[in-house]
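Dissemination and training. As part of the outreach component of the grant, students in the summer workshop were shown how a complex can be specified as a set of sequence lines and then modelled as a single object. The example used during the hands-on session is reproduced here so that future cohorts can follow it. Participants entered these lines:
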Amino acid sequence: MITDFPAAPLPLPDEAELAAELAAFGGGAMIPKEMRRTIFPVITKEDVFNLMLAQRALPERVVADFAESYRDYVGANHALPTASGTSSLHLALIGAGVQPGDEVIVPAFTFIATAQAVVAAHAIPVFVDIDPRTYCMDPQAAAAAITSRTRAIMPVHVHGLPADVPALRALCDQHGLALVEDASHAHSAKIGSATAGSLGDAAGQSLMADKNFPLGGEGGIAFFATEEAYRRAADYVERHGIDYRMSWVAAAFGASQLKRLPYYDQVRARNARLLGEILDGTGLFRAPYVPEGHVHAYNMYRITLLPEAVGLDDLPVHAVKEAVHELLVAEGVPAREWQNSPIPCHLPFQHRAGFGNGYPFSLNPGAVRDHRPEDFPVTVGMLDSTLVLCRELRSPVEYERALRYADAFAKVARRPDAIRKLVADNDYRRPYEKAARLG
Amino acid sequence: MELFDTATVLTRVLTSGVVMSIEKSDRELPGLERLLTKQTGRAKAVLLNSRSAAVHAALAGQGIGHGDRINRPGLGRQDLAFVNWLGISVIEEGVEGGVEEGPVAFDHLALDPENAHQLGEWARRSTAPALVVDLTGLGFGPAAAVLTDDADLWARAERLKIFGAYDLRTMWTQEEADSNLVPGVQFNYRLSPLVAACVRMALSQAARPHTTSGATK
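and obtained this result:
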């Protein structure tokens, strides 16, 4: 039997290990190699039982019941379940009234699906820079990008932190634009009491199994504020023969996971708080910024490096980051960059073949730019100076793992000498100088 | 497929903990790919999450896109609408405007529990560069595959999928030595491992006669 049940428990944290030699220099790793697997999603007997029951139900009913349950949880007015997050974003844009050749403003820092969904809608993604603290779309940059052909603004609640929706809403209202959320990272994220997915005129959200709220494999859901928008999207897939339907297998798994989502949300928030307190005490690391009144879902946890706090301000920050990355990975912390280049610098948006022969970019050549990373200085600065944890806060059965991650960061922060040595010994390139990565 | 068999397959995959298509340790998607290539005699399989996705992959795999036209007679209303949405016009069989059209762009068939055992036979009759196999009728939700002997077709079709097989092998790096392989628009057309596992079991059972155990005799 192939099982994901852990072979052995992690040892409890030990203060002595913090003072030991770094793993990259021959010391013991904070998390031993054989204990590094992070189990996600947590699959329980309820998930298995629900899938068994679903076999006896009509597939359409299983999917519809799931979509209705989750729509109610989010507080959106209408929902359309889909096969993926990309397809949900596509339909959210269609529901919002986006037409071929329209311009849709998106952040330069996101997952590539945000921009590809715009192309799927036969529209043109117009990329803008991000806010230096939230890493979400900068409303001022969005305002500067509006033209007579702009139809929608699509902020991304990056990593689970809601974008500045009040400012963007005001901007949309001022210019008669649709506000379409990319809520793919932001399950249960909130501004005040309103949940991500219910904040805009429409929203798309990935429900793939690597998200905080996972379905059984792949899935997504589009939300709409009005029935008219919902109908527009539903009619669109029917009229064009597009099969974006969700599998009942994925939906049945999601139905039981949804019941446990509030529990997992609390565990993630607790782990984020725990890690944040320790990071902020290291000097070198800073926890994610969360504006007042926002609830961060922590689908990912982006940590900022502050080399000046440990006397490393004479070194390039990207080099310090690379060195720290190496040290953390050696300690057993699966930190990563999660994106190393602005999305407009990825190959599909450099070549712009689209559906073929340059469509839909050919519909609106004036909206197309040959971007370079330097066009997005805030994004590039963030990529230079941050590292990300992904699943590592989501594993609610392993509290001791969160503690050990925190200890690993503290252990590395105590050793600016080691960081300096690695920087001296290596020729670290800036993130965007390497081939663009999807994740 | 018997409910017990479906239950067993689903429980097996859930027990493994791997339900995500981009998990490196996933064995279900490669397993279905192997079965399909074996049953059809084709070298390569591309798994997708719907029939329309497979039609898209079959065309994009051949570099056919917006503004192009294809020879593909006998498409149903839904397929025709989808191909038109891609910006591709469809020409009926034979001669149009005095110009002889090329070979059929792709063949297609739809499997269900009653006809799934005929996959191999139908595949042998297919001569198009891509064979679209709609697996939705097997009962586990929208699912499909493209079978081909053309390595370039496979490579381009995989790149149509965000986080397709190519991205997983390169650990998601989009560097391309061949500019012809750079993707244009991309969709998440990935199939779920749970669905793939069920489809594989259904196809395996269809290919061999059902036998009872000695205990039931």
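Residues 84 and 427 of chain A are 40 Å apart (CA to CA). Students were then asked to discuss how this feature might be tested experimentally.
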